Amino acid sequence: MRYIVKEKIFHITEDSVISDEAGNPQFQVNGAFFSIHNRLEMQDVSGNKVAVIYRKLLAIGATYEVELTGRPIIELHKQLFTFFGDRFTVTIPGEQNVEISGNFTEHEFVFTRSGATIAQISKQWFSFHETYGVDVQNDADAAFVLACSLAIDMIEDSEK
Description:
This protein has one helix at residues 142-158, and strands spanning 2-8, 16-20, 25-31, 40-44, 49-55, 63-68, 74-78, 86-91, 98-103, 108-113, 116-125, 129-136. By secondary structure, it is mostly beta strands. It has one domain (2-158): Beta Barrel (Porin), CATH 2.40.160. It starts with a strand and ends with a helix. The relative contact order is 0.19.
């Protein structure tokens, strides 16, 4: 399924709306104005908290933690030394890690687990919104992929 993430560029917080391809809202993302952790909260259309995404302060390199409702804390870490593009590792307690690779300048990322693609991010720039598509494979957890996509977006924003 394809999701569309729209974020206002000239907005004080990191508020976003995540819609399906038809434009129907699926999630709301709310960011804190002054947050030392760069904290985001993702809610479903009913207002239920689905995930909390925040920067881990005591870490070497860009690291974010993702708390999905009812699951252990997931850690997304940007690898420091890569020769071609950006690479991230998502550590999931009790599960196999997810590797994310891509190129920030081309705005393309691929999520893989055990060599199989589970999702892709494709960014497009518009006049007043940063908009990107997130294609999630049928058997992948959409909330997990979207929360990791938001964390990558925050890491890349901080490095601009």
